[in-house]
């Protein structure tokens, strides 16, 4: 056992294991070589081959999978001349888990961005042992129940038509747990019917041929307002692009008489959701 090396430090990345050790406490003159071995549960493992006796560190970079747990051992190969004997002594086992790779992009065509029933699906990380995922959104961390790259969020109501940052994280292992870096993406929940504009006023000129229409933007737009549309019946339908920040419009060349005015709102990334005042 005095010929056994001592592993002093072991670290990992997504694709490498870095092993450091110290020489045996005695009989160093008998030592001929070192060898580093590594193995995951149920796999054949790998070996560094024979290393020079002066070496005190080694980088494992083959036969590895991100997120997987490995048992690492440093072996002393020694030779005694009298009697002629080959001696092999193992260090104590060291366990290390590789850092998992972060997930891929959201599969937007398979997601449901409903504000009250959000369903997210994403690409799994490449060549990574996955136990589960963490999903961070709006200050809350959700956890999947298994390695399937999807999450249904129930009981949480998001704002419709609102942008949220989604952080996807790969979690590997139930012991020696390692987490990946965040995969940050932005989503927008599906807009819904906007609230009505308020304080709509129509100032009529003396000849009844012009209207000055003013309004206040809805308190709950439930999306990003990109256009207002004014409909006047009879006599005119004005579908010009009234910008989202405008709150006043003059409509002229009208026919005198009784007019019915309605104001509709269009919101971004959806079909028309008119809400008439």
Can you give a write-up of this model?
The structure is a single chain. With 277 residues, this protein is an all-beta fold. Strand 17 (198-204) and strand 18 (211-216) form a beta hairpin. It contains no helices and 22 strands. Strands 3, 4, 5, 7, 8 and 9 form a 6-stranded antiparallel sheet that branches. Strands 11, 12, 14, 15 and 16 form a 5-stranded antiparallel sheet that branches. The protein is rod-shaped, with a radius of gyration of 34 Å.
Provide a compact summary of the structure.
0% of the residues lie in helices and 48% in strands. The chain is built from no helices and 22 strands.
Q: What do the pLDDT scores average to?
A: 84
Task: Please tell me what the overall shape is.
Answer: rod-shaped
Low-confidence stretches: 269-277
The total count of helices amounts to 0
Helix content, binned percent = under 10%
The class by helix and strand makeup works out as mainly beta
Overall radius of gyration? 34 Å
Q: Distance between termini?
A: 88 Å
Major sheet = 6 strands, antiparallel
Number of β-strand runs: 22
Q: What string, H for helix and E for strand, traces the elements in order?
A: EEEEEEEEEEEEEEEEEEEEEE
Oligomer: single chain
Range of strand content? over 45%
